[in-house]
Amino acid sequence: MTIRFFIAAFIVLCLFLAPALAESPIKAEFDAACAKTDDAMNLSVAELNELIERCSRLRKSLEKEDETVRKVYLKRIDMCENLYRFVLEAKARQQKKGEAAK
Amino acid sequence: MKKSYLVLLLLLVGAGMAWAQGGMKKKKPLPYEFGTVTLNNYSEHAGMPPAVFDHWVHRKHFTCRLCHVDIGFGMTAGSTKIKAADNMKGYYCGTCHNGQSEFGKGKLFASCAKEYTREDYKVCVNCHRVDRSEAREDAFYDFAQGMPRETFGNGINWEKAEEMGKIKLTDYLEGVSVKKAKLKTQQDFSLTSKVEGMPDIIFSHKKHTVWSGCELCHPDIFVGVKKGATKYSMVEIFDGKYCGVCHGKVAFPNTDCQRCHSAPVQ
Amino acid sequence: MNRWRFRVRLAALPLSLVGLLLLGPGKTSLADDRDALAKVIHAIPPNGPFWQYGNVVMGMRCRPVGMQPVIFPHWKHRAMYTCRVCHMELGFSMKQGDTGVTRSEYLRGKYCGVCHNGKAAFTVKGEPGSPNCERCHIKDTKGLEARFEEFAEGLPIAAFGNGIDWAKAIRDEQMAPRNTLNSRAVISQLPDKLKTPLKLGSYSDRTMVIFSHQDHFAELDCSSCHPDIFNIKKEGTRSFSMENNLYGNFCGACHLLVAFPMNDCKRCHPRISSLGA
């Protein structure tokens, strides 16, 4: 009973939560650059490099923003970009191993 | 009578001196205190009591990553350096606690304000708590009553609670979270224990990623790419590194040996 | 009369520790000196009669409502359950007054109420004044004393504490306390490496310590002691001294009032000879 109540509450909650930045170009660009973190292991090296490049560009465009926005988004970009780099490194190592095996 | 107080005082001083050097059993947090974080980067400077955050109140509704990845809260107390202004602009606590978000029976209280009346201040003390609140403790025990039990931490087996459908965790906040492709879970693996006869550790990527995603741990907490390259020691984990980042103060504590050292001994 | 004896005993602990405090400021120098060490040992709280050792008087919430304090005999319970059952699974703290057990909690089946439910043991339920109340809120301790004499009969003898060598009783299978109340609980095995007793260095070879993980593991979990009481860093437990033990740190967390007391030198320091009077 309470569970159902909470589910309903969440749906309502989600509808109402819309911080000011929701429609801004920065959020849109961030979404595009970081939507694939959960799927990073399946990306190709070229795709990863492209996403990393996109993150760096986004970082630059943040410089003009308000202090809070900068703080929040720089941290979020860090996490996402670092993950891409981490996966890239893992892939490079795997490839090396594969070549050595041949 | 007075004498016995003096004696007690002296004894306490003695115990305090010894405690400073370790060896005294640290006070184990009570179930409702476990996972409670006190934030005091700016509060006291601004003339407010420190903000006290209860993980249990929030983790029964949301995944870890919703706050620690999407909203951007750091993983150690005080590392985020949240300012009242940040909250008022609708970030950090203010993402939800903005006075408008509907939740349960009503609206979530707004976090932080530039000016407040005596009446408003009653809202401030929701987080900027001066005293321990018995109502809050009771609320915890009422909630815990219906949850699967666990010996350590909050005394609640959160993982099982979700499995049993007792809690449903929200993982997406419109306007904050990113719409993502479905998570491809990486394989589980076992880590060999260094001590002969100690059960190996079974690490489940699945159990972790469902609440934490990938970027919360990699590469910040676990930086090694090659399996087996990093040697983790219990000393480091007890010191709050690696697994100890979460499994000490918030996730089930690292004193719950068998939860990780769970492989049958060969 | 008996209540007075408890009070005297309780008061003796802080008094003797204060005596120890006044002995001198030196942290390690104390133990270097034979006479000083002897004084430290004399600061150990008095053992009291065997049946009283490890009895905990809980009266914080009783006295205001005019109830007799509860007298909890560890000896009665530890024959049936290991330390870990109550101190880990049931959430009893190791410090007196820390747990804050309330009537409403044990009536709801928490703490004492887990076993004292009328099935595993006599129930905690009952109107104030009913005969069951007095089984814990003990007025007259003569019965408890008599039951101890009966209980201790035939168990291996120790010179201090309860006068019972509990570890030996378990080793010789005279006693097999239950290690968990949860039939599905996974109790880990002690790794082989830890089965050999540890030899711990001391100031002199004569006072070296033999520590058995196995004896402790029979009663406890790894996390009962690690890392809060003994961190696991090599040579990381600085300030591990006899004096600090006597303040209730390190070994003193248990071996002061419940597990065998520290007058029983030879149990840990097998090579020690008697230390002057």
Describe the structure.
The complex is a heterotrimer of chains A (102), B (266) and C (277). With 102 residues, chain A is an all-alpha fold. Helix content of chain A is 75%, strand content 0%. Chain A has one domain (21-101). Chain A has helices at residues 2-16, 25-34, 45-61, 67-101. Mean pLDDT of chain A is 82; it is low at 11-22. Chain B has two domains: 36-143, Cytochrome C3, CATH 3.90.10.10; 181-266, Cytochrome C3 (Alpha-Beta Complex), CATH 3.90.10.10. Chain C has helices at residues 2-23, 29-32, 34-42, 74-78, 83-89, 103-107, 142-152, 166-171, 213-217, 222-225, 242-246, 265-268, and strands spanning 55-58, 70-73, 198-200, 209-211. The longest helix of chain C has 22 residues, at 2-23. Chain C is mainly alpha-helical and 277 residues long. Chain C folds into two domains: 8-46 and 188-268, Cytochrome C3 (Alpha-Beta Complex), CATH 3.90.10; 49-152, Alpha-Beta Complex (Cytochrome C3). Chain C contains twelve helices and four strands, in the order H-H-H-E-E-H-H-H-H-H-E-E-H-H-H-H. Helix content of chain C is 31%, strand content 5%. The chains are: A mainly alpha (102), B mainly alpha (266), C mainly alpha (277). The interface between A and B is large, with 46 and 49 residues. Chain A: Keywords: Signal. Chain A: Residues 1-22 form the signal peptide. Chain C: This is Cytochrome c7-like domain-containing protein. Chain C: InterPro entries: Cyt_c7-like, Multihaem_cyt_sf, Nanowire_3heme.
